[in-house]
Structure formats: structure tokens, C-alpha cells
């Protein structure tokens, strides 16, 4: 049976108190919406539909950025979750299978839970994901008879007795495509909120003599983000899980609580991560890589045996081969470093290819930007770049070549050559003492 995802992301998220639509707030370096898309994508859905409304274009862009095949529908006015699902009908035209409804602000639903819901569809026409809430608050309540779900009561519409129920609605629903769209067409908004509730499809199904059932999951999975405080809580929960997972995968974290992961960080077995390291999105570090304290990595690859930091910054496109060393206060962007290359101190290497075993001296800068265009620097294998060399790109330093310290290199350096591009030194005997005496005399005159 094929599946399709419908992700509801039209709400404004007023309580975030933000100009950014709620579902675009980042969690572990990716918008909340992307987390929902990733959970659902594990089921290999035939189609993914995102229902947008507030901040529609930005939300659509983020969705397409993650998955270019996503279909976007616009819910002009937010008239309830049932109304939102109804907007997806045309986008699922010709699709025949199970529709899974997810919320864009609920990032932690596990793929295994969705798979269990698909499985439960064999016995039920409608399957709802429920959870036992420690504090049921304003969640919708699941009204059961045995293991059959009779209906869902929204908090606002519930009687005091119904509010005592602690089995709550997560919002995730699975039903056959034809059925779910027929049921949402029939909804009424005659309720406390004046909205078309998706939750009412349960009683709709039961009226037709169809069955509804519940799959339960841990409350931590259903955590939704409505406020900045909940976003911070979600981040903490994500990080705690990511750290535990890394340790289990054989990564050494000396101080786990000080290391921050992105949603897609990949670390090989026996990688060693020192304290206070931050992984932005898109980092892979191979087995045995060592990331030393206070380093910030993003969009980069670190190979086996490489050492990064302390205090290093790897920006998108940094590609470190085996046994590369990148030391303190070195920034690398869109640049590859060949096997065994070293840049150990105070350098900026951007838009460059550095050959194997090349040595980049302290203070070296690739001057890659002329104010309009970015230019490329090439450094050959085993080249020795003297300290404080300015490499004015586009420029190429050949294999086994050497640049003198303090050089400004504006022309290509042939293989094996020495390039010196700096003013010649002149010594003036005795002049320093004379100058100093003059200054001291001037000070004495002023003080009198
Ligand atoms: C909903 C459920 C409730 C459940 C709770 C779990 C309904 C009627 N109620 O309540 O039973 O316990 O979620 O968190 O479904 N959205 C749209 N368009 C709309 C309305 C909402 O896209 O017109 C989106 C929102 O952006 C959000 C999601 O649907 O991502 C849920 O909407 P929200 O208003 O937060 O529902 P709740 O009142 O929390
Ligand atoms: Ca909500």
C-alpha cells in the first residue's frame, strides 16, 4: 500500500512572538518543518504535501529546499485542522493509499511509530496516534470503548468528566485517501472554536459503521512547539538524545553536555570530540577524527586521522583528507586540504585547493574576494607557505614551491620555485637609540 504525507503548517504560531513562521524556527540546525518531513520520509511516501498559510512563501521555500518534489498547497484562512487537510485533496488527485497527517510543529515523531500506525490500518479504517499525558492540559481527549476509538473531544468542548481522561490526541492520523477526504468534506464547525476539527473524522467514520483505533507512543514523541520555551525544551531533548546516540555509536565525548549536534551530524566510530564543540548542519567526521575543544564545524567533511582545533572553524565546503591538521584560529571555507596537509595557526583558507603534505605557515591568508567576485587559490603538494603570506587569488603556488614569510603573492609560483614578494630589509646603524633619545627629550620638555 502506498502512503502520502500531509503536513499541516499553516498556523501563525502567535505565541512564538516572532516575525518568522513557527515551523521555520530551527531545531538542531533545521527548521521544525524539516524534522516532520524527515520523520515521514522514512516511510518512503509516494507524495508529500505541505499545507501553508502564514508566511506561505518562506515555508514553501524551506520545504522545497529539503525536498524539491514536495507539493505545496495554500490554506488562505486558517479554519481548522480538518479544513487544512481538505486543502490537500487536489494535490493528492490520482493517489490511492494511506494518508498520514503530521503537524509541522511536532518534530519528534519516530518513523517506527508511523510504521506501527500503518500496520494498525489493517484492522482499522482510521488510526489515531495517542499518548498518556502526565498533564493532559488542553489536548484533545480520546474517548475509547475497549480498544475501539469512539470519538475525540477537544478540550474546549469537553465536559469536566471528559477532561479527567489522560489518553490524549497527538494530532497524527492515518486513513485511506478516499475516506479521509470524504470525511473532512462532511465536517461541521459547530463547536467551541468555530473550526473544522480534523479530530471529528473519528465520529464521522463511526457513523458510517467504520472502525477507528489508537496506536500509543511515548509523550516525548508528541512534543509540539508553541512557545520559545518549548523550542528550547525541544532543543535540549534533541541534544540529550543525540549525545546518548553518539556515545552508543562508539564516539568519545569528553564532556557530552557541552557538545551540540545538528539534525544530520555523522560521526564515525572512535571519533573523539573534546568539550565545547558545535556541529552545524552537514558535518561528517570519519572514524578516528579528533575535534578539539571550542571548534565550530558546518557543512564539512573530516577524514580519518585528521585533527581539528582547538579553536578552529570549518565552514561549508571544507574537505579535510586523512591526517590533515587544522589548528587554532584557522578558518577554512570551500577548500580542500590534501592528505597530511597542515595549517596549524591563525589562517584563512577560502576557495582553495591545498595539495597533500603542504604546510601553511601561521598567519597565511588566501585573499579570495575582490569585493565583487570570489577567486580560487591553488597550492601544490608539499608546498611550504611561509608565515604571513598573502595569496592574492586567482593564484597558483606550484608543487614543492616555497614562499618567503610576509610575502604578498600576486603571480603564479612555478613548481619547486621560491617566491619572495616583500620589501627588502634596510638596517640603519644606531638610529633606534638616537630616535628614542629624541622622543624622551621631547617628553621632558613638555613636562617642565
Ligand atoms: C490539535 C488537535 C488536538 C490535539 C493537539 C495536539 C484538532 C482539532 N485538535 O489541537 O486534539 O490534542 O492538536 O497538539 O485537530 N493548522 C493548519 N491550519 C489550520 C489549523 C491548524 O495548518 O487551520 C496546523 C497548525 O499550524 C499546527 C497544527 O495544524 O501545525 C495543529 O493546529 P493547532 O491549532 O495547534 O491544534 P491544537 O488546538 O493544538
Ligand atoms: Ca498546537
Number of domains: 2
Span from first to last CA? 98 Å
Q: Identify every distinct bound molecule in the structure, by name, code or SMILES.
A: uridine-diphosphate-N-acetylglucosamine, calcium ion
Indicate the structural class: alpha/beta
Categorize the overall geometry: elongated
Radius of gyration based on Cα positions: 30 Å
The top-level CATH class of the largest domain is Alpha Beta
- What's the total helix number? 9
CATH topology of the largest domain: Spore Coat Polysaccharide Biosynthesis Protein SpsA, Chain A
Proportion of beta-strand residues: 25-35%
- Compute the number of strand runs: 33
The average pLDDT is 97
Q: What about the largest sheet?
A: 19 strands, parallel
Q: Going by CATH, what is the homologous superfamily of the largest domain?
A: Spore Coat Polysaccharide Biosynthesis Protein SpsA, Chain A
Instruction: Return the CATH architecture of the largest domain.
Output: Alpha-Beta Complex
**Low-pLDDT windows of residues:** none
Helix content bin: 10-25%
Structure report:
The chain has 448 residues and is an alpha/beta fold. It has 2 domains: 3-222, Spore Coat Polysaccharide Biosynthesis Protein SpsA, Chain A (Alpha-Beta Complex); 228-419, UDP N-Acetylglucosamine Acyltransferase, domain 1 (3 Solenoid), CATH 2.160.10. The chain contains 9 helices and 33 strands. It has a 19-stranded parallel sheet that branches. A 7-stranded mixed sheet has the order 5-4-1-6-10-7-11. The longest helix is centred in the middle third of the chain and has 21 residues, at 228-248. The chain starts with a strand and ends with a helix. The model has no long low-confidence stretch (mean pLDDT 97). The structure holds uridine-diphosphate-N-acetylglucosamine and calcium ion.
